[in-house]
Amino acid sequence: MSSDQSNESIKPLSGHCHCGKISFTVSPPFAHNAVCHCVDCRRSSGALAVHWAVVSEESLVLDPSVSPDDLTTYTGKTGSQRQFCRVCGTGLFFRNQQVIPGMVDIQATAFTEETPAPAPGAQIWVKERIPWWNALKDMKEFEQFPG
Question: Which Pfam families match (predicted)?
Answer without folding.
Answer: GFA
